[in-house]
Request: fold
Amino acid sequence: MASLSLGGLNVSARRKSVQSRNAAVERRNLITVCRFSVKTLIDRSCFETIDDSSPEFNNFAAILEQILSHRLKGQITWFGYESPRSFWDYIRVACRKVSHNCICSIENMENVSSSRAKGRAWIRVALMEKHLSEYISAALRDFKTTRRFYEDGAIVLGEEANMLAGMLLGLNAIDFSFCLKGEGLDGNFPAVIDYTPYLKFTQSSDSISSDEEELRTLGSSGSESSTPENIGPPFIMDENSWYNKCKRVEQKYRLTLEQKGYLEELVRLRETQLAESVSQNKLLLQRIEDMDLAHKMEKEQLEYIIVELQDQLKSFQSLDQLSAEVSLSQTSLDPGNSQDGDGKEDGLNLLSEGKEDTPSLLGLCGSLTSVASYKSLTSLKSSEYLASPTAEMTSPGLTPS
Reply:
């Protein structure tokens, strides 16, 4: 009994591993094919307009529908049965928060009734609006809703979902033109992916013989009448195959040699351009240094001129203050002394008109034109006038002999 239980556990574990491997391979295949289809659409859009008749678009729409329908949960009815569900049910709920969305307009379309047809119409409208990547990104950000609609292992729940949103971003550069009443909106049949445009087999150059020679070799080896004497033709075919191989190698060598010469010439051209750029860079750096030095010298000169102007402004302010003091002193003196005051004002005006005003001259002017010195001069004059009659009367020349 223990061996049976262990065997059952091993079988279930092996089955789970196979299922997980198959799911991973399916996800990888769908994402890779989607990348190829997007590149094909971008290349085709350079030559013609993409519409419903384009096989590249039909294949892309089928791939996107398969991705959005991967491991989608069914809808549980009242009786406990699970009915199939379309990816439009998920898009309608997850993309309702997108600004200026087209969900309501697609729901109100008259000629589209089934859920699958509405999903296909949404793909076309989103491509024409250039908002398909925005819709997918908004739906993937609503992780709670995504988790509610999809099972474990779905593409929209894995790391491939971010790659899907990035791939669809390149479709915004294409101008699509669709008719929403065409046969592509028929929701009665599931979408089928055509893998043949993305499958390509290239025979390696190391293969000795071509397909015809391989068929001949197989036919000769499988015949009943093959004997050791019939070994001659294969050797001749081998020599021909070696000759063809040498021809192919020689052709590749010539092509590589031409490419080598082209690349060497391109490298020499780039080296000369680089040397010219370096020399021009040095000249520009030297000019920048010279301009910086000139700007510094100009700045120093302007600062020196500003200092000189400030000194002259201070001297002019001191002269204005001095003239104001002199005017006050003139008002306090007698009217008879107005002539002397006018003379002093003229002297001050002469001093103010001078271009070079030094602190020594300002001090001298202040000592000569101050009120105290002016009063001392007037008192001295008055004393001289008073002493002159007595001097004349007491002079020896006027006394009697």
Q: What stands out?
A: DSSP finds 13 helices and two strands in the chain. Residues 298 and 304 are 10 Å apart (CA to CA). Confidence is low (pLDDT under 50) at residues 221-237, 354-378, 380-401.
